[in-house]
């Protein structure tokens, strides 16, 4: 603290209360008597924030002094989750804050209920970004996350007659106490326009943009756990310049026209695109991407120049991680800045650029690979297209040298695709312009090398790596599951596992202990009571993730219908009560996924109305799945559904959260499921279905879903029930697509899945056996800490060393 010369922040309840009062008076501008709950929430948040801000100031001072190598994590999405509870934990003020707040007539729980999570992401990729910045801070890695401060986050989902309805998410409507605006660091971003030659130079060009937009940053604090480091996530918001307001039109009464330019500018950061994994190719999205990249690179360069002057040091001091291809225009943008603005030679600029970037791929789905029509690019970013052409020409020359005369290879590898129209292939650009490329689970990285990026792996085998994803144990165990956390801490003797998650292996010695098992079960039961989704003694079976056909919620649905029919056919059977809990959003334009949601709710309603089946089977759809809801569901789950078609789910991270909290997985050999199974033990994992190789074979050899329908009576009865209208008139489309193409081999895996669910029930009948398996899942999930993920990136891709504050 001496370093930054501050007075002490409150460390006792009394002092904390003093700080609350001064914040209430001086920053909130109100009094105890007239304070609303919102005032109390804001005041508490500001007071907690001060504790982190003090550490932030010391972190910034330490970083400035050591002029370290920095990691910059560029991501179009950050799903940070609610901030208050996390920041109480990370600042160590939870205890005194609770008491101080109580003395003022409020409770922490009440105020935490007012904390709105910034939904600035769609799903896995956005949440991964949040877990990684958490772990970078925890590991004392100098890092900044860069993203977009969308006015509207991921839409709010509700059900209306069982169908998904969407409402806008104006998340900061009442203000956001966690964010520090930094208007002095605003940047100017150009779009459109044309380029002009620069006399005397063959590579440099002058870009004259046709539109100028301002980027205003604000940042959120990202504290490390158990260390003093506090990093930041810097989020950009688009604004019109002063000149974008047309005063003369306004004076003439043309109010809409007077602001139209400003509105156009501000639309860039207006809303998060709600599509997960399906590329739409809207110009505004490309604008968002360039806006993020342009603001962030200028900020990175500004920060570099605070302590350095030689461009040859740039790549030593900087590594920029691209979270999927969304920020890939950073590659031509850095070239433009170095060549056109800082006047470096092309080859020198290219060497720096290639060494600076690394790229993480999160998909294998062809429809998720971003490509932009050349004409869109040319209009919006004319100079960048020229640079891409030059990068491509030089790159193809390199390929031609290695593989002379192999024209097919050249056209596959080209950054510009020609068929059916000319498009810029962002993944190709990302591979060509980076030092390292990684997938997010072993299988995914292998399939990237062997399929989608095979030609590139031939050319540069050493560039390709795997870094298996991970999750924050602080958020997804400590905060989400306090009961389990307390038991673990008690059993291990200390809470060091929170930053050294492999220590959970020490739980193995308790797995067979009857009284420990009893406590384990009672915690799970209490978590189910809290969740209140169904009978706490029923098997709580959860499928929580975005709705997508490749994830196969429709397969889970076929199992539910089969179970429903079995119970109806044998009402006096020895049935195991089960609560099936779904949660997840479908992209608003993804009709097939929305139909699956409707059918789930229709089936759920039919079952609820059936007195024979409803004692044994309940289907719940929890609306508006987000990080906060995940934190409530995950600790209560008995069974984790990870049933994507093998070869389609890059990794999955919900699978890790659930296993870590003692849910058993029923899953395919896909993504990180494979690594979970390898670690928790195959006897503690319910495996079914085709593997990725078999799935690909099945497709090639002419898959006929009707064969399965014809040969499997239970399957036929389930589909016939849908078509006969047993669940109302919804479901024809779902059944039609299953019997028609069944793109994701749902019917091929049906029998194996049903039989595996029977094995789940057999295991559930023996509570000691089940509990033992549950304990072993937690004990052997330590590998899936994002701290390990970050350590892998740091050692093998970033080559950064920690800086202690
Ligand atoms: C280009 C646009 C349509 C787009 C927008 C969002 C494309 C993709 C996405 C989001 C992708 C995503 O969330 N992918 C998930 O990333 C997780 C973290 O690596 C993986 O665990 C998960 O398997 C993968 O689907």
UniProtKB/TrEMBL annotation:
Keywords: Carbohydrate metabolism, Glycosyltransferase, Pyridoxal phosphate, Transferase
Cofactor: pyridoxal 5'-phosphate
InterPro entries: Glycg_phsphrylas, Glyco_trans_35, Pyridoxal_P_attach_site
Modified residues annotated as N6-(pyridoxal phosphate)lysine in this record: 657
Superkingdom to which the source organism belongs: Bacteria
A GO BP entry: glycogen catabolic process
Cellular component GO terms, alphabetical: cytoplasm
A Pfam cross-reference name: Phosphorylase
Keyword Manganese found: no
PANTHER family the record matches: GLYCOGEN PHOSPHORYLASE, GLYCOGEN PHOSPHORYLASE, LIVER FORM
Family: Belongs to the glycogen phosphorylase family.
Name of the protein: Alpha-1,4 glucan phosphorylase
Organism the protein comes from: Actinoplanes lutulentus
């Amino acid at each position: 603290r001496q370093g930054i010369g501050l007075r002490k922040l409150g460390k006792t309840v009394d002092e904390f209360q003093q700080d609350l009062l001064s914040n209430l008076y001086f920053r909130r501008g109100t009094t105890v008597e007239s304070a609303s709950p919102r005032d109390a929430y804001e005041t508490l948040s500001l007071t907690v924030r001060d504790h982190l801000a003090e550490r932030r100031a010391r972190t910034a001072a330490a970083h400035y002094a050591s002029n370290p190598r920095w990691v910059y994590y560029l991501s179009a999405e950050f799903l940070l989750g609610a901030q208050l509870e996390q920041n109480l934990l990370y600042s160590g003020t939870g205890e005194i804050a609770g008491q101080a707040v109580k003395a003022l007539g409020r409770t922490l729980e009440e105020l935490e209920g007012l904390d709105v999570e910034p939904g600035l992401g769609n799903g896995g990729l956005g949440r991964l970004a949040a877990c990684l910045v958490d772990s970078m801070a925890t590991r004392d890695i100098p890092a900044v996350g860069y993203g977009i401060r969308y006015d509207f986050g991921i839409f709010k989902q509700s059900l209306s007659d069982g169908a998904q309805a969407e409402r806008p998410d104006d998340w900061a409507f009442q203000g956001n106490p966690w964010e520090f605006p930094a208007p002095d660091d605003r940047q100017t971003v150009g779009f459109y326009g044309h380029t002009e030659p620069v006399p005397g130079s063959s590579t440099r060009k002058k870009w004259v943009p046709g539109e100028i937009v301002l980027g205003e940053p604000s940042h959120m604090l990202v504290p490390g756990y158990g260390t003093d480091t506090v990093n930041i996530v810097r989020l950009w918001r688009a604004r019109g310049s002063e000149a974008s307001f047309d005063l003369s039109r306004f004076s003439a009464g043309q109010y809409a026209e007077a602001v139209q330019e400003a509105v156009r500018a501000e639309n860039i950061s207006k809303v998060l695109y709600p599509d997960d994994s399906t590329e739409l190719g809207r110009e505004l999205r490309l604008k968002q991407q360039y806006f993020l990249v342009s603001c962030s690179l200028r900020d990175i360069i500004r920060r570099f120049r605070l302590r350095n002057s030689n461009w040859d040091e740039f790549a030593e001091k900087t590594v920029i991680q691209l979270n999927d291809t969304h920020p890939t225009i950073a590659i031509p943008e850095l070239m433009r800045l170095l060549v056109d603005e800082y006047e470096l030679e092309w080859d020198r600029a290219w060497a720096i650029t290639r060494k600076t970037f690394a790229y993480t791929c999160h998909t294998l789905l062809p429809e998720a690979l971003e490509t932009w029509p050349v004409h869109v690019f040319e209009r919006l970013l004319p100079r960048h297209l020229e640079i891409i052409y030059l990068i491509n020409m030089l790159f193809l020359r390199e390929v031609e040298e290695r593989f002379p005369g192999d024209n097919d290879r050249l056209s596959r590898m080209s950054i510009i695709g020609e068929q059916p129209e000319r498009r810029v292939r962002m993944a190709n650009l990302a591979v060509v312009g980076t030092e390292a490329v990684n997938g997010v689970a072993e299988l995914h990285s292998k399939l990237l090398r062997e399929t989608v990026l095979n030609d590139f792996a031939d050319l540069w085998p050493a560039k390709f790596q795997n870094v298996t994803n991970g999750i924050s144990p602080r958020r997804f165990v400590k905060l989400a599951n306090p009961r389990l956390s307390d038991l673990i801490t008690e059993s291990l003797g200390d809470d060091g596992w929170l930053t050294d998650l492999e220590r959970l292996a020490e739980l193995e010695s308790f797995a067979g202990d009857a009284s420990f098992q009893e406590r384990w079960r009672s915690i799970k039961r209490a978590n189910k009571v809290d969740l209140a989704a169904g009978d706490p003694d029923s098997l709580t079976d959860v499928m929580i993730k975005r709705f997508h056909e490749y994830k196969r919620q429709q397969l889970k649905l076929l199992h539910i219908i089969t179970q429903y029919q079995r119970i109806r056919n044998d009402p006096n059977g020895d049935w195991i009560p089960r609560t099936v809990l779904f949660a997840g959003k479908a992209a608003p334009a993804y009709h097939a996924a929305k139909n699956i949601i409707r059918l789930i709710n229709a089936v759920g309603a039919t079952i609820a109305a059936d007195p024979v089946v409803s004692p044994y089977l309940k289907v719940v759809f929890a609306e508006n799945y987000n990080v906060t809801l995940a934190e409530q569901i995950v600790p209560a789950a008995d069974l984790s559904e990870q049933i994507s078609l093998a070869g389609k789910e890059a990794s999955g991270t919900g699978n890790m959260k659930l296993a870590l909290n003692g849910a058993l997985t029923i899953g395919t050999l896909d993504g990180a499921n494979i690594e979970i199974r390898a670690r928790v033990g195959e006897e503690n994992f319910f495996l079914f279905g085709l593997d990725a190789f078999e799935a690909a074979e099945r497709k090639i050899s002419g898959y006929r879903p009707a064969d399965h329908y014809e040969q499997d009576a239970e399957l036929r009865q389930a589909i016939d029930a849908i078509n006969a209208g047993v669940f109302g008139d919804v479901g024809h489309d779902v059944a039609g697509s299953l019997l028609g193409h069944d793109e994701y081999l749902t019917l091929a895996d049906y029998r194996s899945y049903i039989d595996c669910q029977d094995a789940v029930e057999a295991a559930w009948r023996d509570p000691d056996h089940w509990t033992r398996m549950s304990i072993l899942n937690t004990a052997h999930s330590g590998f899936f800490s994002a701290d390990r993920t970050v350590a892998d990136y740091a050692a093998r891709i970033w080559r950064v060393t920690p800086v202690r504050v």
